[in-house]
Amino acid sequence: MTDTNQYDVIIVGGSYAGLSAAMALGRLLKSVLIIDSGLPSNRQTPHSHNFITQDGQTPAEIARKAREQVLAYQTVNFYQGLAISGKKTSNGFEITTASHDTFSGKKLIFATGIKDIMPDVNEIEACWGKSVIHCPFCHGYEFKDKKTAILANSDKAVHLASLVGNLTKDITVLTNAPANFTLEQREQLARNHIAIIETPITAIKHQNGYLESVRFQDDATLDVQVMYAAVAFEQHCSIPKDLGCELTETGYIKVDAFQKTSIDGVYACGDNTNMFRSVSAAVATGSMAGAMVVKALTEELFLTSPEKSIQD
Ligand SMILES: Cc1cc2nc3c(=O)[nH]c(=O)nc-3n(C[C@H](O)[C@H](O)[C@H](O)COP(=O)(O)OP(=O)(O)OC[C@H]3O[C@@H](n4cnc5c(N)ncnc54)[C@H](O)[C@@H]3O)c2cc1C
Question: What is the pTM of this model?
Answer without folding.
Answer: 0.95
